[in-house]
Protein backbone atom coordinates (compact mmCIF):
# COMPACT_ATOMS: atom_id res chain seq x y z
CA UNK A 1 0.00 0.00 0.00
CA UNK A 2 1.21 3.49 -0.84
CA UNK A 3 1.14 5.95 2.05
CA UNK A 4 -0.32 9.17 0.71
CA UNK A 5 2.63 11.52 1.31
CA UNK A 6 3.74 12.60 -2.15
CA UNK A 7 1.27 14.51 -4.37
CA UNK A 8 -1.33 12.38 -6.12
CA UNK A 9 -2.31 12.93 -9.72
CA UNK A 10 -5.27 11.84 -11.81
CA UNK A 11 -3.00 9.41 -13.67
CA UNK A 12 -2.19 7.62 -10.39
CA UNK A 13 -5.85 6.76 -9.81
CA UNK A 14 -6.38 5.90 -13.48
CA UNK A 15 -3.44 3.48 -13.36
CA UNK A 16 -5.04 1.62 -10.44
CA UNK A 17 -8.44 1.39 -12.12
CA UNK A 18 -7.10 0.44 -15.55
CA UNK A 19 -4.81 -2.27 -14.20
CA UNK A 20 -8.01 -3.87 -12.89
CA UNK A 21 -10.27 -3.09 -15.86
CA UNK A 22 -8.17 -2.14 -18.93
CA UNK A 23 -9.83 0.32 -21.31
CA UNK A 24 -9.07 -2.03 -24.20
CA UNK A 25 -11.80 -4.33 -22.84
CA UNK A 26 -14.56 -1.80 -23.44
CA UNK A 27 -17.06 -2.34 -26.24
CA UNK A 28 -16.50 -0.45 -29.51
CA UNK A 29 -19.52 1.81 -28.91
CA UNK A 30 -18.45 2.77 -25.40
CA UNK A 31 -16.82 5.92 -24.03
CA UNK A 32 -15.02 4.73 -20.91
CA UNK A 33 -11.93 6.53 -19.68
CA UNK A 34 -11.08 10.11 -18.77
CA UNK A 35 -14.09 12.02 -20.09
CA UNK A 36 -13.03 15.42 -18.84
CA UNK A 37 -9.84 16.70 -17.25
CA UNK A 38 -6.08 16.33 -17.22
CA UNK A 39 -4.22 13.14 -16.26
CA UNK A 40 -1.42 15.33 -14.88
CA UNK A 41 -3.73 17.30 -12.57
CA UNK A 42 -3.02 17.01 -8.85
CA UNK A 43 -5.93 15.67 -6.80
CA UNK A 44 -6.83 15.61 -3.11
CA UNK A 45 -10.33 14.14 -3.00
CA UNK A 46 -12.43 11.69 -5.04
CA UNK A 47 -16.20 11.27 -5.28
CA UNK A 48 -17.73 7.96 -6.44
CA UNK A 49 -21.07 7.57 -8.21
CA UNK A 50 -22.92 5.09 -10.39
CA UNK A 51 -24.17 7.82 -12.74
CA UNK A 52 -23.35 11.45 -13.47
CA UNK A 53 -26.15 13.97 -13.07
CA UNK A 54 -26.20 17.70 -12.43
CA UNK A 55 -26.85 16.94 -8.76
CA UNK A 56 -23.75 14.75 -8.61
CA UNK A 57 -21.63 17.43 -10.31
CA UNK A 58 -22.92 20.00 -7.79
CA UNK A 59 -22.09 17.63 -4.94
CA UNK A 60 -18.56 17.16 -6.28
CA UNK A 61 -17.97 20.88 -6.71
CA UNK A 62 -19.46 21.87 -3.36
CA UNK A 63 -17.54 19.10 -1.60
CA UNK A 64 -14.24 20.26 -3.07
CA UNK A 65 -13.59 17.01 -4.92
CA UNK A 66 -11.01 17.01 -7.73
CA UNK A 67 -12.01 13.74 -9.39
CA UNK A 68 -15.41 12.16 -10.02
CA UNK A 69 -15.42 8.44 -10.84
CA UNK A 70 -18.58 6.86 -12.24
CA UNK A 71 -19.65 3.60 -13.80
CA UNK A 72 -21.79 5.11 -16.55
CA UNK A 73 -20.10 7.68 -18.81
CA UNK A 74 -21.72 11.08 -18.97
CA UNK A 75 -22.11 10.59 -22.70
CA UNK A 76 -21.47 7.81 -25.18
CA UNK A 77 -22.50 9.79 -28.25
CA UNK A 78 -20.24 12.58 -29.45
CA UNK A 79 -21.12 16.23 -28.83
CA UNK A 80 -21.17 18.85 -31.59
CA UNK A 81 -21.20 21.84 -29.25
CA UNK A 82 -21.08 22.83 -25.59
CA UNK A 83 -24.21 24.96 -25.39
CA UNK A 84 -26.05 24.50 -22.06
CA UNK A 85 -29.13 22.97 -23.69
CA UNK A 86 -28.92 19.48 -22.13
CA UNK A 87 -27.94 18.09 -18.74
CA UNK A 88 -24.91 16.36 -20.31
CA UNK A 89 -23.52 19.62 -21.66
CA UNK A 90 -24.33 21.54 -18.48
CA UNK A 91 -22.46 18.90 -16.47
CA UNK A 92 -19.40 19.20 -18.70
CA UNK A 93 -19.44 22.99 -18.67
CA UNK A 94 -19.57 23.09 -14.87
CA UNK A 95 -16.90 20.40 -14.53
CA UNK A 96 -14.54 22.30 -16.83
CA UNK A 97 -15.27 25.59 -15.07
CA UNK A 98 -14.40 24.08 -11.68
CA UNK A 99 -11.46 21.92 -12.82
CA UNK A 100 -13.34 18.73 -11.98
CA UNK A 101 -11.86 15.64 -13.62
CA UNK A 102 -14.38 12.96 -14.67
CA UNK A 103 -13.51 9.31 -15.26
CA UNK A 104 -15.82 6.40 -16.11
CA UNK A 105 -15.24 2.64 -16.09
CA UNK A 106 -18.17 1.15 -18.01
CA UNK A 107 -18.16 -1.96 -20.23
CA UNK A 108 -14.50 -2.56 -19.39
CA UNK A 109 -15.62 -3.00 -15.77
CA UNK A 110 -18.45 -5.25 -16.96
CA UNK A 111 -15.95 -7.47 -18.77
CA UNK A 112 -13.70 -8.57 -15.89
CA UNK A 113 -14.27 -11.51 -13.56
CA UNK A 114 -14.47 -9.42 -10.39
CA UNK A 115 -16.23 -6.46 -11.99
CA UNK A 116 -19.91 -5.48 -12.03
CA UNK A 117 -21.36 -8.98 -12.37
CA UNK A 118 -18.72 -10.33 -10.00
CA UNK A 119 -19.93 -7.91 -7.34
CA UNK A 120 -23.50 -9.13 -7.87
CA UNK A 121 -22.19 -12.67 -7.32
CA UNK A 122 -20.45 -11.50 -4.14
CA UNK A 123 -23.71 -10.14 -2.77
CA UNK A 124 -25.45 -13.45 -3.44
CA UNK A 125 -22.61 -15.57 -2.07
CA UNK A 126 -22.04 -17.52 -5.28
CA UNK A 127 -19.32 -20.15 -5.35
CA UNK A 128 -17.46 -21.93 -8.18
CA UNK A 129 -17.85 -18.90 -10.42
CA UNK A 130 -16.91 -18.44 -14.03
CA UNK A 131 -17.64 -15.98 -16.81
CA UNK A 132 -21.06 -16.70 -18.35
CA UNK A 133 -19.97 -15.66 -21.85
CA UNK A 134 -16.16 -15.61 -22.10
CA UNK A 135 -14.63 -13.30 -24.66
CA UNK A 136 -11.34 -11.77 -25.69
CA UNK A 137 -8.51 -13.25 -27.72
CA UNK A 138 -5.49 -15.07 -26.37
CA UNK A 139 -2.03 -15.03 -27.93
CA UNK A 140 1.16 -16.99 -27.41
CA UNK A 141 4.16 -14.67 -27.12
CA UNK A 142 7.39 -16.48 -27.96
CA UNK A 143 10.90 -15.03 -27.52
CA UNK A 144 14.52 -16.19 -27.33
CA UNK A 145 16.93 -15.02 -24.61
CA UNK A 146 20.54 -15.88 -23.74
CA UNK A 147 20.60 -18.28 -20.78
CA UNK A 148 22.25 -15.74 -18.48
CA UNK A 149 19.33 -13.30 -18.90
CA UNK A 150 16.43 -15.69 -19.51
CA UNK A 151 15.02 -15.62 -15.96
CA UNK A 152 15.21 -11.83 -15.71
CA UNK A 153 13.43 -11.28 -19.03
CA UNK A 154 10.83 -13.99 -18.37
CA UNK A 155 9.90 -12.54 -14.97
CA UNK A 156 9.62 -9.03 -16.41
CA UNK A 157 7.22 -10.16 -19.14
CA UNK A 158 5.19 -12.28 -16.70
CA UNK A 159 5.03 -9.25 -14.41
CA UNK A 160 2.82 -7.49 -16.96
CA UNK A 161 0.08 -10.01 -16.17
CA UNK A 162 0.24 -12.72 -18.80
CA UNK A 163 0.83 -16.37 -18.06
CA UNK A 164 -2.44 -16.96 -16.20
CA UNK A 165 -4.18 -20.29 -16.77
CA UNK A 166 -7.16 -20.89 -14.48
CA UNK A 167 -5.98 -20.59 -10.88
CA UNK A 168 -2.32 -20.76 -11.90
CA UNK A 169 -0.11 -17.73 -12.50
CA UNK A 170 3.39 -17.25 -13.97
CA UNK A 171 2.82 -20.08 -16.46
CA UNK A 172 5.41 -20.39 -19.21
CA UNK A 173 7.13 -23.01 -21.36
CA UNK A 174 10.92 -22.84 -21.61
CA UNK A 175 13.17 -24.85 -23.90
CA UNK A 176 16.96 -24.68 -24.25
CA UNK A 177 18.48 -24.50 -27.70
CA UNK A 178 21.14 -22.83 -29.81
CA UNK A 179 20.70 -19.52 -31.59
CA UNK A 180 22.96 -18.30 -34.39
CA UNK A 181 23.53 -14.88 -35.91
CA UNK A 182 26.08 -12.96 -37.96
CA UNK A 183 26.53 -9.39 -36.70
CA UNK A 184 26.87 -7.05 -39.68
CA UNK A 185 28.70 -3.72 -39.85
CA UNK A 186 26.94 -1.02 -37.83
CA UNK A 187 25.42 -3.46 -35.35
CA UNK A 188 26.11 -3.47 -31.60
CA UNK A 189 25.87 -7.12 -30.54
CA UNK A 190 25.36 -8.00 -26.86
CA UNK A 191 27.44 -11.13 -27.46
CA UNK A 192 29.63 -12.21 -30.36
CA UNK A 193 31.93 -10.30 -32.70
CA UNK A 194 31.00 -8.23 -35.73
CA UNK A 195 31.75 -10.06 -38.95
CA UNK A 196 31.71 -13.59 -37.54
CA UNK A 197 29.01 -16.22 -37.07
CA UNK A 198 28.12 -16.51 -33.40
CA UNK A 199 26.44 -19.41 -31.62
CA UNK A 200 24.66 -18.69 -28.34
CA UNK A 201 22.92 -21.02 -25.91
CA UNK A 202 19.44 -19.55 -25.54
CA UNK A 203 16.10 -20.24 -23.87
CA UNK A 204 12.93 -20.22 -25.96
CA UNK A 205 10.08 -18.94 -23.77
CA UNK A 206 6.37 -19.09 -24.58
CA UNK A 207 3.77 -17.21 -22.52
CA UNK A 208 0.01 -17.03 -23.07
CA UNK A 209 -1.04 -13.38 -23.11
CA UNK A 210 -4.57 -11.90 -23.34
CA UNK A 211 -5.11 -9.37 -26.10
CA UNK A 212 -5.43 -6.41 -23.75
CA UNK A 213 -1.95 -7.10 -22.29
CA UNK A 214 -0.22 -7.91 -25.57
CA UNK A 215 1.14 -4.45 -26.44
CA UNK A 216 2.46 -3.86 -22.92
CA UNK A 217 4.03 -7.33 -22.82
CA UNK A 218 5.88 -6.70 -26.09
CA UNK A 219 6.94 -3.25 -24.92
CA UNK A 220 8.35 -4.75 -21.71
CA UNK A 221 10.12 -7.53 -23.62
CA UNK A 222 11.88 -5.07 -25.92
CA UNK A 223 12.81 -2.85 -22.98
CA UNK A 224 14.47 -5.53 -20.82
CA UNK A 225 15.87 -7.90 -23.46
CA UNK A 226 19.67 -7.56 -23.78
CA UNK A 227 19.79 -8.06 -27.55
CA UNK A 228 19.82 -5.11 -29.92
CA UNK A 229 17.34 -7.01 -32.11
CA UNK A 230 15.41 -9.53 -29.98
CA UNK A 231 13.74 -12.37 -31.86
CA UNK A 232 10.07 -12.77 -30.96
CA UNK A 233 6.81 -13.80 -32.56
CA UNK A 234 3.10 -13.97 -31.79
CA UNK A 235 0.65 -16.80 -32.42
CA UNK A 236 -3.09 -16.05 -32.44
CA UNK A 237 -4.74 -18.82 -30.41
CA UNK A 238 -8.23 -20.22 -30.96
CA UNK A 239 -8.82 -20.27 -27.20
CA UNK A 240 -11.02 -17.60 -25.63
CA UNK A 241 -9.95 -15.82 -22.47
CA UNK A 242 -11.85 -17.48 -19.59
CA UNK A 243 -11.47 -14.51 -17.22
CA UNK A 244 -12.88 -11.76 -19.43
CA UNK A 245 -16.34 -11.52 -20.91
CA UNK A 246 -19.86 -10.83 -19.67
CA UNK A 247 -21.97 -12.19 -16.86
CA UNK A 248 -21.15 -14.66 -14.09
CA UNK A 249 -22.51 -18.11 -13.36
CA UNK A 250 -22.00 -19.85 -10.04
CA UNK A 251 -23.65 -21.90 -7.33
CA UNK A 252 -25.22 -21.28 -3.95
CA UNK A 253 -23.55 -23.03 -1.03
CA UNK A 254 -26.86 -24.81 -0.39
CA UNK A 255 -29.99 -25.08 -2.56
CA UNK A 256 -32.60 -22.46 -1.69
CA UNK A 257 -36.37 -22.41 -2.04
CA UNK A 258 -37.13 -20.42 -5.19
CA UNK A 259 -39.56 -17.93 -3.66
CA UNK A 260 -37.36 -17.45 -0.61
CA UNK A 261 -34.37 -16.81 -2.87
CA UNK A 262 -36.30 -14.26 -4.96
CA UNK A 263 -37.20 -12.41 -1.77
CA UNK A 264 -33.54 -12.47 -0.77
CA UNK A 265 -32.59 -11.03 -4.17
CA UNK A 266 -35.15 -8.24 -3.76
CA UNK A 267 -33.77 -7.36 -0.32
CA UNK A 268 -30.10 -7.65 -1.29
CA UNK A 269 -30.42 -5.33 -4.28
CA UNK A 270 -32.88 -2.96 -2.55
CA UNK A 271 -35.50 -3.41 -5.24
CA UNK A 272 -38.89 -1.72 -5.10
CA UNK A 273 -40.16 -4.44 -7.42
CA UNK A 274 -38.76 -7.57 -9.06
CA UNK A 275 -40.14 -8.82 -12.38
CA UNK A 276 -39.76 -12.52 -13.08
CA UNK A 277 -41.14 -15.38 -15.15
CA UNK A 278 -43.10 -18.31 -13.72
CA UNK A 279 -41.44 -20.08 -10.81
CA UNK A 280 -40.67 -23.26 -12.72
CA UNK A 281 -38.01 -24.47 -10.30
CA UNK A 282 -38.81 -25.54 -6.75
CA UNK A 283 -35.21 -24.90 -5.67
CA UNK A 284 -32.36 -22.69 -6.81
CA UNK A 285 -28.75 -23.88 -6.87
CA UNK A 286 -27.14 -22.60 -10.08
CA UNK A 287 -27.37 -18.83 -10.52
CA UNK A 288 -26.41 -16.62 -13.48
CA UNK A 289 -26.13 -12.84 -13.16
CA UNK A 290 -25.26 -9.88 -15.37
CA UNK A 291 -25.13 -6.24 -14.36
CA UNK A 292 -27.04 -3.75 -16.50
CA UNK A 293 -28.82 -4.85 -19.68
CA UNK A 294 -28.27 -8.59 -19.89
CA UNK A 295 -31.03 -10.00 -22.09
CA UNK A 296 -28.38 -10.92 -24.68
CA UNK A 297 -27.04 -13.58 -22.29
CA UNK A 298 -30.33 -15.43 -21.77
CA UNK A 299 -29.40 -18.28 -24.12
CA UNK A 300 -26.00 -18.65 -22.42
CA UNK A 301 -27.67 -18.92 -19.01
CA UNK A 302 -30.06 -21.57 -20.36
CA UNK A 303 -27.28 -23.51 -22.10
CA UNK A 304 -25.22 -23.65 -18.90
CA UNK A 305 -28.09 -24.96 -16.82
CA UNK A 306 -28.84 -21.95 -14.64
CA UNK A 307 -31.91 -22.28 -12.44
CA UNK A 308 -32.32 -18.50 -12.39
CA UNK A 309 -30.85 -15.62 -14.38
CA UNK A 310 -30.75 -12.18 -12.74
CA UNK A 311 -30.18 -9.01 -14.76
CA UNK A 312 -31.92 -5.79 -15.81
CA UNK A 313 -33.77 -4.16 -18.70
CA UNK A 314 -35.79 -7.13 -19.95
CA UNK A 315 -38.40 -6.22 -22.54
CA UNK A 316 -41.82 -7.87 -22.55
CA UNK A 317 -41.05 -10.37 -25.31
CA UNK A 318 -37.68 -11.27 -23.76
CA UNK A 319 -39.44 -13.06 -20.92
CA UNK A 320 -40.92 -15.62 -23.33
CA UNK A 321 -37.43 -17.02 -23.91
CA UNK A 322 -37.55 -18.76 -20.53
CA UNK A 323 -39.96 -21.48 -21.73
CA UNK A 324 -40.02 -22.89 -18.18
CA UNK A 325 -36.33 -23.81 -18.40
CA UNK A 326 -35.24 -21.25 -15.80
CA UNK A 327 -36.55 -18.22 -13.94
CA UNK A 328 -35.73 -14.95 -15.72
CA UNK A 329 -35.50 -12.15 -13.18
CA UNK A 330 -35.32 -8.41 -13.88
CA UNK A 331 -34.20 -6.45 -10.83
CA UNK A 332 -33.56 -3.20 -12.73
CA UNK A 333 -30.52 -1.69 -14.43
CA UNK A 334 -29.53 0.63 -11.60
CA UNK A 335 -30.21 -1.96 -8.93
CA UNK A 336 -27.86 -4.47 -10.56
CA UNK A 337 -25.01 -1.95 -10.87
CA UNK A 338 -25.34 0.16 -7.73
CA UNK A 339 -22.44 -1.58 -5.98
CA UNK A 340 -19.83 -0.60 -8.57
CA UNK A 341 -18.91 2.27 -6.23
CA UNK A 342 -17.66 -0.31 -3.76
CA UNK A 343 -15.31 -1.74 -6.39
CA UNK A 344 -13.79 1.70 -7.06
CA UNK A 345 -13.43 2.37 -3.34
CA UNK A 346 -11.72 -0.93 -2.60
CA UNK A 347 -9.33 -0.64 -5.55
CA UNK A 348 -8.13 2.83 -4.57
CA UNK A 349 -7.98 2.42 -0.78
CA UNK A 350 -6.15 -0.90 -1.11
CA UNK A 351 -3.34 0.91 -2.95
CA UNK A 352 -3.40 4.34 -1.32
CA UNK A 353 -3.94 5.00 2.38
CA UNK A 354 -4.98 8.25 4.07
CA UNK A 355 -6.74 9.54 0.98
CA UNK A 356 -10.11 11.32 0.87
CA UNK A 357 -12.57 9.21 -1.11
CA UNK A 358 -16.34 9.35 -0.63
CA UNK A 359 -19.54 7.81 -1.95
CA UNK A 360 -22.00 10.18 -3.57
CA UNK A 361 -25.14 10.72 -1.49
CA UNK A 362 -27.22 11.49 -4.58
CA UNK A 363 -29.79 8.88 -5.62
CA UNK A 364 -29.19 8.74 -9.37
CA UNK A 365 -31.73 6.09 -10.38
CA UNK A 366 -34.04 7.93 -12.83
CA UNK A 367 -36.82 5.36 -12.40
CA UNK A 368 -39.46 5.82 -9.71
CA UNK A 369 -42.31 3.54 -8.66
CA UNK A 370 -45.80 4.23 -7.30
UniProtKB/TrEMBL annotation:
Gene3D superfamilies: 3.30.70.120, NIF3 (NGG1p interacting factor 3)-like. InterPro entries: DUF34/NIF3, DUF34/NIF3_bac, DUF34/NIF3_sf, N-reg_PII/ATP_PRibTrfase_C. Signal peptide: none annotated. GO terms for molecular function: metal ion binding. A divalent metal cation binds at residues 71-72, 110, 333, 337. It comes from the Bacteria. Keywords: Metal-binding. GO terms for cellular component: cytoplasm. Belongs to the GTP cyclohydrolase I type 2/NIF3 family. Homohexamer. This is GTP cyclohydrolase 1 type 2 homolog. It comes from Odoribacter splanchnicus.
Amino acid sequence: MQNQQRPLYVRDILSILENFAPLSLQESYDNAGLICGNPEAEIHSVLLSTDITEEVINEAVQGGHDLLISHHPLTIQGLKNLRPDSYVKRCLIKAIRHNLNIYSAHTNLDAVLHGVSGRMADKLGLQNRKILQPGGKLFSLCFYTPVSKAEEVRQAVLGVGGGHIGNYSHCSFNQKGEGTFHAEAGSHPYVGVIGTLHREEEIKTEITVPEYLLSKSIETLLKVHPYEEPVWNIVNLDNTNPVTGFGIIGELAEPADSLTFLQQVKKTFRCKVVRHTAICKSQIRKVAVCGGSGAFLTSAAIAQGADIYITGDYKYHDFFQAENRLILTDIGHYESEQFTKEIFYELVTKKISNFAIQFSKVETNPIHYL
